Amino acid sequence: MNPLVTVSVPIFKCEKFIENCLISIKDQIYKNIEVILVNDQTPDNSLAVIEKFIKESQLENWRIINLKTNSGLSVVRNEGIVNAKGKYIFFVDSDDEIAPDAIDSLVKLSEETRAEISMGEVQGVRIPSNEHVDVFPIDTKVDIVKGNLNILGELVNGGFAISSWNKLISVDFLKSNNLYFTKGLYAQDSLHTFEMGLHLETLAFLRQKTYVYYLHEDSVIHNRKKVHFDNWITIAQKINEHYIKEKNAERGKLILEYLINFKAVTLQMNWKAQQNEELWKYSYKAYSKLKKLSLQDYFSSDYSTKLKKQDLFYRLPLFVGYRFFRWRFDR
What we know:
By secondary structure, the chain is an alpha/beta fold. The chain contains 13 helices and 10 strands.
């Protein structure tokens, strides 16, 4: 028996891309699909394009949910979860596409392994050159990871992408663990994936391209501003809260590693996006208030030398930390 899959798509300023996205969903070889399109009060003609597409294609199991006010992607994603009738949910961003066998292959994998989450590989495409590039690689050595500590370890070590899209996720897993997106966050994927990681017991990987990710001038990755840096600070604070509450020593160690890595990576992305000294220092000061390795940790073999250096680099006094960062970044 083929379980119902909910495909959830956010709708906001996507009229240039949305039709190709919808075609890729309609053309899935797996047919037991419902599609939820969440309109976040888009100001362009996206909605008209979608309504025309649904009508002309005579798609009965597709529905549009119109939010009353523009609420942001986190609320949009949550609408998909709350309204999902499927056993699984699969998020697709409106400017991307999915391979024809994506849902079919991932459902088979999830049903065989009983994984709460299954994911495939991503094909990156640069627009307008149409150059194919590798993005968001799966670096795990095994196809199925079992046990929460093992999954957290893969997450901390960057074994898989933190994106919310291109993951077939058990709806019951999300709802039973109250795993909803945090309202108000633009960069919500990293926090939500981390919080899912705290509960996962089985994670499965498909070594084939299931998702087409378009890199274009409208992509968020090319348009990061202070609001995104504020989001990263909020995410770091929430990871910090999870660390403080954690009672299991091994899980606590992994959460602290994730936090230290998150601070380092986002400070680098901060600088790449704006190269603004004031904004970088603003984030650095906020991060300095969060948990760090203890003196005892520096003498322990529990943490790698690389992580110890990472922690040390971002706990220096602000003036020294900025100069040292610039020296490392520019060389």
